[in-house]
Amino acid sequence: MEQSQKNTGKLGNWIRTSVTARMFMIGILILVLLIPLTFIKDLIRERSQRKQDVMKEISKKWGGEVLFYGPVMEIPFKTFQEKTVVDESTKKIYTETIESVEYAYFFPETLDIDTKVDPEEKYYGIYKTSVYESSMNISGSFTKPDFSEKEVEEKHILWDKAKIVFRMSNQKGVSNKVEIRLGANAYAFKSRYTTDDVYESDFPALNTLESSLLKKEDIPMEHTSDFSMKLNIKGSQQISFIPAGKQTTVNMVSDWKTANFFGEFLPYNDDKVHENGFDARWKILDINRPFSQQYFNQLPRLNSYAFGVNFMIPVDEYQKSERSAKYGFMVICLTFLVFFLIQTMSGINIHPFQYLMIGLALTMFYTLLISISEHSNFFKAYLVAGISVVALITAYSVSILRSRSFPMFIFLSLTALYSFIYVIIQLENYALLVGSTGLFLILAIIMFVSRKIDWGNS
C-alpha cells in the first residue's frame, strides 16, 4: 500500500512538473473539446436549414423565382404517313394514308425586354429573404415561318390555328392581365396547366401559357409581325430569361445594391453597378447560343441557357457563424498554448480542470454568437459574444495566475485573436492571404517567446 502511494505521488509529481506531460494533457483536452465544437457546427447547420425552410415558405406565399421563356409562335401542320394494311377477309394488301397534326415552334426575330425590379427584404419572425415586384415590357417581331426543313407544303400548314405561347415559372406571382398585341389586335393568354415533363433540380418548373387563335392579318406570312406585351409579376430571390430571339436584348434596372449576375451570358456594360443599384444590359445573338430558331413536335427545354440577376442578401449570419466556428479548433489551441507558455515559463501550476473550464468558455462564444445574431446583426453579436468570453476568461485567469500582468497579456491575446478572425470572416477575396499571413506572424511570435524554454528538463 505504501509503495502504491509512492508510485501515485511520483506520477502526480511528474504530471505537475513535466512539460511533456502537460503537453499530452492539453492535447487530450483539445480532442475532448472537439465534441462540443461538433455539436455547435451541427446546431448552426440546423438553424440555417430552418432559415431555408422559412425562405421557401415566404417564396411560396409571395411568389418564387421568375424564369421567362418566349414568346414563341406555335403553328400546327398536317403530316401524312403511308401504312401497309392487309385485309383479313380478302388477303389483299393496300396502302392507307394516315393524317396527323404536328406542331412547329418559331422563335422571334428580335426580342427586347425592358425590366424594372423593385426588391425588398421580407421578414418572417427572425428570418428574412429578398422578394420583389417587377414590371416587364416585352417587344419584338416575328418573320415568316420556314417549313422547308420538314418539306411541308403550304396547303398543309394550318395558319388559322396559329397561336403565341410562352413559358414561365411562378405563374402565381402574375398581377396583371397577360395579353400580347400583334398589329392592331390583342390576344389574351390562358394556361395549359402543364409543366415540364423533364425535372431538373437546379431550375424551376415552367408553366405553358397560350394565346387565343391568331387572326390571319397578324400572322407573318408576307410581312414581319411586331408584337408587344406587358407582364407585372411578384417573385423572390432571382429573375432570369432565356434568349429566345435571334437577337435578344435585355435591360434591367433596380435599386438593389448587392445583385449577383449569373447564367450563360453576363451584362456587356461596364457601368452596370452603381451607388444607387444597377442598370444591366445584355445583347445575345443567335450565333452566341447553341440552339436553333425553330423546333418541330415540341418546345425544347432551354433552362440551362438562362441568364439573369440574383437579388442576394450578403453572407448571412449563419454563414458567418459557420465560418467563425471553423476557427474554433485554432482558437482553443492558441489559447491553451498561451496558458501553457505562461505555466512553463513562470512555474505557476494550472490544473487540467482549469484548462477544461477555459476551453468550455471558448466554445460558449459560438452559442452566444448564434443566438444573438438571430436577433441582431452579426457585428453586434460578435462584439457581445467576444467581450463576454474574453472578460470571463480574463477574470478567471486572475484567480489562476494570481497576478495582473499575465491576465492582461491573455486579455490582449484573446482580443487580438478574435479581432483577427472577424477580419478574415468579413473578407472574401483576400481571406486566404490575410489568414495565412496572420498565422505566420502568430507562429513567429510563439517561436520567439518559446526559444528560452529549457526543453531538456521536460
Automatic annotation (TrEMBL):
UniProt keyword annotations, A-Z: Membrane, Transmembrane, Transmembrane helix
Pfam families, per the entry: CreD
Any Gene Ontology CC annotation: plasma membrane
Leader peptide range in chain numbering: none
TM segment ranges: 20-40, 327-346, 352-369, 381-400, 406-425, 430-449
NCBIfam families documented for this protein: PRK11715.1-1
Protein name: Cell envelope integrity protein CreD
Species assigned in the record: Sinomicrobium pectinilyticum
